[in-house]
Sequence to fold (235 residues):
Amino acid sequence: MVVDVFGCAIEDYHHGNDPEDIRTISSLDEQDSIPVAYLFRTFKDMPVLEQVALKMCRGNVLDIGCGAGSHSLYLTAKGLDVTCLDASEGAVEVCRERGLQQVVHSELLNFRGKTFDTIILLMNGIGIVGKLNNLDAYLTHLKKLLNPGGQILFDSSDIRYMYEEDEDGGIFVPLENEYYGEVTFVMSYKDIKSKPFSWLYVDYNTISRAAQYHGFQCELVRKGPHYDYLAKLTL
Fold:
């Protein structure tokens, strides 16, 4: 049975069922919490990188990892044709209840049959890749979902700053990881807890090299305030 932590939290908030924060613990020994209300934020409350990305969207749009639908609702209100995609059953149900018409419950690699002018993966949506060695499969699949002249917009972070450097500038990476941006998370909400899952934070140079290998041009659109960035891929 799949434990739908995000979906349960999103449904509780949407239906007013005493929502609590989503709690996370990572392989970096960091604990954090995510207020569920943040997943329902409006455009004015979004980080600048997300605002810039949404303003760049054009044509028909695929919102990967749509969550509660905040990005899709903004784009729909601007008159764009938006398809919402999420692996969380609770999230897609709330998206439908919030009025979004084209909502798909699916893992990204299982989704096909339609192509798009703009694909967005925001809130570090590229993290769904999990491990760096999965990046080829995801870029190959995303390429098939893109119309000629289309664009992929995503944000991520270079988390090298979270590791201690040695005298030569090298960093210690746990043996189970081949890349320092591979982080394992466990999420919990109320009395449910997810299984450990991998999430990828990828630095710009690494994603740029991988994208070029697959025939994409990679553009650094804007840097954020804390080692984060917004990038655009085009064919």
Notes: The chain has a mean pLDDT of 94.
